[in-house]
Amino acid sequence: MSTPLDHVEQLSAWLKDADLGLLELRGPNATLRLVNDGASVRVLDGEEIASVDEPSITVRAPSPGIFLDRHPLHERAIALVAADVRAGDPLGFLQIGPLLLAVPAPRAGTLTDVLVAHGTIVGYGTPLFALQPIEGETS
Amino acid sequence: MIRVLSAAALATVQDLGRTGGLNLGVGTSGAMDPLALAGGNILLRNEENAAAIEIPVFPFKVRFERSTVFAVTGADCAGRLDEAPVLPWWVHRAEAGQVLSLSLPKQTTWRATRAYLCIADGIDVPAVLGSRSTQLRGSFGGHEGRPLRDGDELPTGRSNDRAASGFGLVPPGLALPLEADGMPAVRVLPAAEYDCFSNSSHDALWSTAWKITAQSDRYGYRLAGRELNPLRPLELRSHGIVPGVIQVPHGGQPIIQMRDAQPSGGYPKIGTVIEADLWRLGQAPIGSSVRFIRCSWDEALDASADIRRWLANARRLVELHCREGRGR
Amino acid sequence: MTTDRPRTSLLGTTALLFEAPGETSLETQRRIWAMAHEAAGFPGVREAVPGMNNLMLAFVEPPRRPEEIEQRLIELWNVVAPLPIAGRCIDLPVVYGGEAGPHMSDVVEYTGMSVDEIVERHSAPTYTVFALGSHPGYCYLGGMDVRIATPRRKVPVLKIPRGAVSIGGSQTGVSASDGPSGWNTIGSTEVAFFDVNRSPPALLQPGDSVRFKAARVLR
């Protein structure tokens, strides 16, 4: 019987075609994750998935403002879902008039979700990201 | 202190310019994009006129010999501090020994060509005739009156306890767009010899695109486009001019006088780019085109007020943010 | 381009230009100097800068209504008395021709005169400094003999050295620093026209005068 790993090439092509960032297939015996960072598609091994013992962290807006997933001069989001980030890395930005603030990762981990669309006005404390911390790492 | 490791060409120390020297034949010099220089200084809580390094050609590399708070404004030049990416228009802290590398700007959401390396407390070269700008003709001001070279060491102010890091500004190129038919544009007031040109020349001035040729630099931008024809030959006496004056020499291809232009000239002047839009020209890349928009005196004054308002607003928000202690 | 009435015009929002009427003359220039003195004190004016029978006012802040200051300048022109500046006179030793004057032969060819005649006519007058401009310390001089006038070069020279004594059209001048020029260089002088460490940095000011003294003539 084939496993998802046998179909990586085809799945990668579909991922690129549809311009999707992440494909995750979970099965009873295997999990396949494909991450498309725009330049290439790579496979994440099952071992790379953070332990389910650590609870996911919600990263909230440190202030009201306009949420931006990228620097205004850039064309790509600064942090992509399934990317590994270090403590302090900017996940996105808040714009307050001409001022730009970063929304930093509070801990090292994997970005699992972006909860708000680029350009949305958010309030203080609005959930922006879900971050799966790397076990044993603290900020 | 900052050590220049590699400078491609024409990087100079500039502030907002040298005033009061016209009676000596000394022009203003100063940053081609004064808004980027002032914006960087606002981020660092410097006075607006603190000196910075203007970088028009890349790559450019410096080493920080001491822990330094800095910002790179103007064009986004894919900065790296050692290996880590440097955000544009953002306050960063470098540790002693770290190397900042700047590369050729990518034209993404804002077309720009010059970058400014701004430092907390500014580049501490001596002020000459009231300014730290480099006067290339005559070789004074800035760093030894010349462009920077590999191995140059630039003094920086004592460490600025006021400067926090970890925040930035939205570039004014995005906040204050100006276009004509989808192309970057600048506003122009007609000059003394405007009426000496034909109607078709007027039409060409306002309705066609002007390409910034490779023969363009801090002295002047030579433009390529339709020939501008005076109705009769014009012979003018030498008279004072300012950056932004659009001269039309024999041959009919205009030259926009820029920051290092002679403060006097004798060619016919068809118009002058308004002071509030000179920063836009300063960021127009070689090979790109611009449009001219005719404006009124009042519109020109309003444009200057818009600039002042952007600066004041940026200053207010940065100060508010820093005082509330949110900077890392 | 001469007019029969004074003219004002804008240089963007940065400065205002006033052009005196009539042919270029020292008498008019004396009135321009007087206007500069007075206009320097107008509100909002950072600097009043004489040119060749014209005056530029550089603003600190552009005025809300430029017509008012334009009108004021025209009225000033109508009443102002020529400033009787009698400055100092400086002799400039010049090495003419040869390597010091690489374009002397072009002036010879255009005017039809010999090197000695050109040197004689260039060094005879006392030239008045009308204004400074162009580059630090550079003096616009009045009083050249029109018989040695030679048109500007078709192709400007990328760099003529500091001290180059040149003829451009009916004007003559001395470069105060290395730089490009479309004028015809006929000689060279060692006198320094600008030293940023000196106070004042410029050697000469409007109303001063110079005489060129032929120290040597190279052939």
Automatic annotation (TrEMBL), chain A:
UniProt-recorded name of the protein: Acetyl-CoA carboxylase biotin carboxyl carrier protein
Pfam families cross-referenced by the UniProt entry: Biotin_lipoyl
Domain Lipoyl-binding: residue ranges: 58-131
SUPFAM superfamilies, per the entry: Single hybrid motif
Source taxon at top rank: Bacteria
Entries under InterPro entries matching the protein: Biotin_lipoyl, Single_hybrid_motif
Native source organism of the sequence: Bradyrhizobium yuanmingense
From TrEMBL, chain B:
Domain Carboxyltransferase: 23-310
Molecular function (Gene Ontology), one example: 5-oxoprolinase (ATP-hydrolyzing) activity
Chain residue ranges for the region called Disordered: 136-162
UniProt xrefs under InterPro entries: CT_A_B, Cyclophilin-like_dom_sf, PxpC
Keywords assigned by UniProt, alphabetized: ATP-binding, Hydrolase, Nucleotide-binding
UniProt-listed Enzyme Commission number(s): 3.5.2.9
Keyword ATP-binding on entry: yes
SUPFAM superfamilies in alphabetical order: Cyclophilin-like
Pfam families in the record: CT_A_B
EC class name: hydrolase
Biased composition (Basic and acidic residues): 143-152
Protein name: Biotin-dependent carboxylase-like uncharacterized protein
UniProtKB/TrEMBL annotation, chain C:
Keywords: ATP-binding, Hydrolase, Nucleotide-binding, Protein kinase inhibitor
Record bears the keyword Hydrolase: yes
Domain Carboxyltransferase residues, every copy: 6-204
InterPro entries assigned: CT_C_D, Cyclophilin-like_dom_sf, PxpB
Superkingdom to which the source organism belongs: Bacteria
Pfam entry (one): CT_C_D
Annotated EC: 3.5.2.9
Gene Ontology molecular function terms on file: 5-oxoprolinase (ATP-hydrolyzing) activity; protein kinase inhibitor activity
Annotated TM spans: none
SMART domains linked to this entry: AHS1
Name under which the protein is recorded: KipI family sensor histidine kinase inhibitor
